[in-house]
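Support request, please re-run this one:
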Amino acid sequence: MTVGHDAAVADAALLDALVTTEVALARAWASRGVAPQSAAEEISAALGWPQTGPHVHGLTVQTLAAASRTGGNPVIPLVAQLKNRVPADARVWIHRGATSQDILDTALMLIAQNAVAEIRGFLDATVAALGTLAGAHRDEVAAARTLTQHAVPTTVGARAAGWLRGVRRARTRVSELQFPAQLGGAGGTLASFVEIGGGDAAAALPAALAIELGLDAPDAPWHVTRWPVTELADALVQVVDALGKLATDVATLSRTEIGELAEGSGGGSSAMPQKQNPVESVLIRSAALRAPQLGATLHLASALAADERPDGAWHAEWPTLRELLRLALGASAHAAALVSGLRVDAVAVARNLALTRGLIVAERLSLVLSPIIGKDRVAEIVSAAATGDDLAILVRQAMPAASALDVDRLLDPAAYTGLAAPLVDDAIEPTTQEEE
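Re-run finished. Output below.
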């Protein structure tokens, strides 16, 4: 579902991030005056800093994966392969003082930050398109549905404004995320770094590494304090949740017998040429069905992060986090395309609104008429109208002769949309301000 949108979290991207992190560590040592600047430059040149990639560092995912089995993670063979690619006098500064988790956690934060930047771009596009949609259909009255049944009048714009609020809130969550570098050494005490460069250099080294990579400086090692992963997971699940709600409504409202919405370019069927399937919605919903379980797995891994290095819980994070990022990337890309091309069929909206022959305002009838003619009489009117009698005639017949009630307005769905219009205005105002 994410073809063209998952390069940021692919195996090659993780390999590049691992290499980049190792180079950045050598550069961080040099920035603190511990490693020779010449060694950092030699390592950078040999491994292509800052444009690391297979064409520069010469490593392949296949060979690294094969060599990773014995050590349980890819960093152990990576270090050996990198040292073979840098000048002999600089090799000592590859992976100097670090443990495998330092490199792998930092690399995962690096690819996560890149992926979230892409997700944020797709969400920006979705928010803008939803603001336009909500504004354009601000006053178009439609049937609201609760428990699958017609309930009261709403507007197409109010429904879109609800989607907008959910997506915007999710965008806020991902915008507030932190992506800290990881550097703690074997037991999370930075003892190895103190031994190599002294206490002051060791204390400053994590922030120096973060600066080299454009990540956030950690306040402490987080080897077994996994909030950077779980907060990221929660934000990604919220993104996919918000997009799943949108996609679920679009899929429902694009059903043939409803027909209020249609995707801009629906997909066809291999067997039924008349079909225009809501493919974007289907793919988003597919992601929404899987994302929460991935988030739960990451929370479980965090809770079971035993000792100073977990025995399996940490390892379970790697594929889980990347898959969750992949789903969020795909869902957000599909959502941006979906909303930008979404079509509203005003005729179908009006047709469906009229299906209950005026009973869409039954709640209003109960509120207004019960004090005048009694609740039981209102119930009789509604029951009669449900079997086919004319609702307007029934109401007029039940009203006292002296009543000045405007029955036509009472039965007009457009007059019973409450605060739908200002709610739309409130929802799209921040979007308008962003555009300005």
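The first strand starts at residue 141 and ends at 146. Residues 173 and 285 are 20 Å apart (CA to CA).
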